[in-house]
Amino acid sequence: MTLYDRIAAFYDPWSRSVVEDVGFYVDHALEAGGPVVELAVGTGRIAIPIAQAGISVIGVDSSPEMLAVARAGAEAAGVADRLDLRVGDLREPPVTERVPLAICPFRSLLHMETEAEKLQALRAARALLERDGRFVFDVFAPSREDIEDTHDRWLEREPGIFERAVWDEGSRTLSLSVRSGEDTVTFGLHWLSAPEWSRLLDVAGFEVEELFGWFDRRPYGGEEDMIFVCRGS
Ligand SMILES: C[S@@+](CC[C@H](N)C(=O)[O-])C[C@H]1O[C@@H](n2cnc3c(N)ncnc32)[C@H](O)[C@@H]1O
Question: What number does the ligand 1 atom closest to the CA of 108 have?
Fold first, then answer.
């Protein structure tokens, strides 16, 4: 059982307020034309809107329970035929198709603990792409203000759903605990700086076309969020 299997039932209520990225990824899918591979597709928060826009998605995730929620959501939205969900690791995605766009939204690459694992994931994403295909993903590195405001404090993020961030700046790891009722799950997110991501992308065979600081496409200027738009080099 993966950690996300344990929060699948309350992942959607927990992430309800995260909507700012949806249109950004849907626009990229419309531009690429699909099919799109979403690595770490989760409950389909992004994949279902892409399918609703008429683009087919192959979604890979290591959590069968998250995929079960995605499947039910796709059926309810009437787009199950456009969503091909596959259990697997994003470092070795069970995808033989080559596609014009791969995406990895909502900081999922930060589940890769080491640089070697991040590089393996980036290389796997690169291998999915058709000639001139793109890989688009977002990650973050915390600001001092964020660390000071949230460190080791339980905060109610949504009614009845609490979150606690424990920041370790030495190892650059966020241990994020999520609690709903009796259930608490803690997972690690391992951040890098923008230049470090750019270097790994270069090694993995990508050219960074754009680096945004937010989903409104403002250029990155040292914000917490980094949104990379990359093309195979
Ligand atoms: C923050 S959620 C993001 C889900 C979805 N992309 C979204 O934007 O809402 C992170 C997802 O990564 C998945 N995940 C974590 N490690 C993974 C791995 N090594 N391979 C595939 N999926 C993984 C989890 O199961 C979870 O569904």
Answer: 10
